[in-house]
Amino acid sequence: MPEIVGFCEIENRFVMEDILKSTPFKWRNYGLIHKESPDNRGIDVALIYRKEKFRILSQAFFKVQFPWDTTKTTRDILYVKGVTHFEDTLHIFMNHWPSRLGGQSESDRNRQFVASILRSKVDSVFRTNWNANILIMGDFNDEPDNSSITDVLRAQTKFDQPQPGELYNLAWYMKEVKGMGSLKFQGQWGLIDQLIVSGSLLNKSNSIYTTPDNARTFNADFLSEKDEAFIGVKPFRTYVGFKYNGGFSDHYPVYIDFYKP
Fold first, then answer.
1. By CB distance 3.0 to 4.6 Å, which of 142, 163, 218, 225 could disulfide with 146?
2. Closest CA relative to residue 56, chosen from 80, 87, 30
3. What string of DSSP letters covers 62-115?
4. Residue 12 within any structural domain of the chain
5. For residues 139 and 129, what is the distance between their CA atoms, to the nearest angstrom?
6. Is this structure's pTM higher than 0.90?
7. 9-58 pLDDT tens trace
8. Domain containing 190 — which CATH number?
9. 98: Cα within 13 Å, side-chain hemisphere
10. Using CA atoms, how far apart are residues 146 and 216, in angstroms rounded to an integer?
11. How many domains does the chain have?
């Protein structure tokens, strides 16, 4: 079972508690971090963790307030600082950025603004420890090559010489090198569900590390259905419009493995 899992589009705490009680998660001792967000759709981010594998040191929910529209709301950014069972400190930022409702270009500044908040929080961690282990994950509603990720968050896409104090987008590698996708729209795969790490986590001499090849989508058969309109398969979603479809999600999960040298 995974040691840490991030969730998006959670309706409320009851849903998370039900997941922990009614699925195979119940066989492990998971802790839950969740807060009702100000999002006008009533959906939140959450994180669960195996208590014997990850010890929480601190947590915070960073509110997003758009200066050009104080009535507009979105999900908080969840920050968790903890210690792994290897006794390594890990900083996690869980995200669900604003949607592309109204069009990509029309909504760009919303995601760029959230990216600027996230970048400022990351910089605060780096100022304390240049070699900090940082994992950023979630649904960004932008692709790895969009400006919010490349220019504002400044996530790098060259992995041959990772540097401390920098961010590296493993989702770019997943999509551009491995051809992976987490959702399908009009027959085209996209990867808006991303995994971004600090340079220290790509250093094999670090206390814990990973590689770009260790970031993947989980596209098991039971999470997929035949794509009747286009070739191949697509995620087995719960609803198609207002019609119940019986599936799990219109996104595949993404995951990453970490190792000890």
1. 142
2. 80
3. E----TT-TT---PPEEEEEEEETTS-EEEEEEEE----TT-HHHHHHHHHHHH
4. yes
5. 27
6. yes
7. 999 999 999 999 999 999 999 999 999 998 888 899 999 999 999 999 99
8. 3.60.10.10
9. 26
10. 20
11. 1
